Amino acid sequence: MSLFIGGCLLVFLQASAYGGVVQATFVQPFFPPQIQDSWAAYTPYYPVQAYTPPPKDCKITQVNIIQRHGARFPTSGAGTRIQAAVKKLQSAKTYTDPRLDFLTNYTYTLGHDDLVPFGALQSSQAGEETFQRYSFLVSKENLPFVRASSSNRVVDSATNWTEGFSAASHHVLNPILFVILSESLNDTLDDAMCPNAGSSDPQTGIWTSIYGTPIANRLNQQAPGANITAADVSNLIPLCAFETIVKETPSPFCNLFTPEEFAQFEYFGDLDKFYGTGYGQPLGPVQGVGYINELLARLTEMPVRDNTQTNRTLDSSPLTFPLDRSIYADLSHDNQMIAIFSAMGLFNQSSPLDPSFPNPKRTWVTSRLTPFSARMVTERLLCQRDGTGSGGPSRIMRNGNVQTFVRILVNDALQPLKFCGGDMDSLCTLEAFVESQKYAREDGQGDFEKCFD
Hints:
The chain is an alpha/beta fold and 453 residues long. The protein folds into two domains: 2-73 and 115-192 and 276-450, Phosphoglycerate mutase-like (Rossmann fold, 3-Layer(aba) Sandwich), CATH 3.40.50; 76-112 and 199-257, no CATH class. The chain contains 14 helices and ten strands. The chain has helices spanning 33-36, 76-90, 117-134, 152-168, 201-222, 230-247, 259-274, 289-300, 312-315, 334-344, 366-369, 430-436, 438-441, 447-450, and strands spanning 2-5, 8-11, 58-68, 145-149, 177-181, 327-332, 375-383, 403-410, 413-414, 428-429. The strands form two sheets. Strands 3, 4, 5, 6, 7, 8, 9 and 10 form an eight-stranded mixed sheet that branches. A two-stranded antiparallel ribbon has the order 1-2. It starts with a strand and ends with a helix. The model is unreliable at 9-27 and 386-396 (pLDDT under 50). Pfam families: His_Phos_2 (PF00328). Monomer. Keywords: Disulfide bond, Glycoprotein, Hydrolase, Secreted, Signal. This is Phytase A. It is found in: Secreted.
């Protein structure tokens, strides 16, 4: 298997699977789920549920994928904060807990921003999985149409996705990265077009002071003189995730925290996304409107109608925005995917997330929404009731004609789609789905203008 990172080619050997097709075998977890699945946005991808094939009376006719880039180094800003917290721990003259002894000879060696080998593998596996699941939709004349936002880690994820897809087909079908959307221009795959949007700092600050203070007090007892603060805790816990993913072996920083404390960090990440570009941010959902309008155009095979983030020059050309493909794959960022979920109506909560108390029944859990290499898949289907399928009454056709439906999976978990009348198979008619996206079709109902007022 060939993987690309920063333009460099890495070669890995991978065993073939059934039928001679390369099967994506997801890397085994580094830790038990109660720890690894509590790394919030730094959790490695995993299927939240097993993929559910469509009902027997339906056939898939189109697939739209939006996927987060694979695992990366910390961003430059996060890396700076992480190193500052580590230096505090290393400033202690002695350690009262042997779990900190490794710090005596510890050196921070992580890079910043770019994709790491594990992340490249995740993206390649996603391409393989797409071929295995949807190969009946493609041919040499109808290859997946692939776009990416212009960050290096996103571009590298896209090229690894195409390589994985190609490898799974024994290089018979070779899609390419066709469009790179500049993040300095109109871009529906990045959340950089709303300068007036607020941040999640007020909410994450409240929770940090609640959960981080006891942990900081304990660390200061174990490392006298370190003067660790609650804010430092939210920078040290991610180092467990980053080092483990980069080095592909458990980081010693993971031993400094309990499963309960990792769960508390997960809620920190949940608040960050909810109040960053999610439902809790007044100008969060509007940042997902442009992609939704592109999705509607593909599903209906009609020109894009949008006055928000879309690049109208690219979207008006059949070369750079075709409407006749069966598979579309867009590589993006987690914050942008959160905005899209919120604009669409997915994972809506009965009440906003409380910055001081996690609701154990919440469906807004970042590790399940946007782990590294997260993906949302929108399938378009033709369905006809034949008396033996599992379809509900909404699929009884007039005069026996087929009808077009959509269903949406996030990390393989079928979404109920209550906002468009989803039936027992989580299917909405295409017409009902389009109608449900009024917020996007009306360009954010005035919210987009507020981004610049």
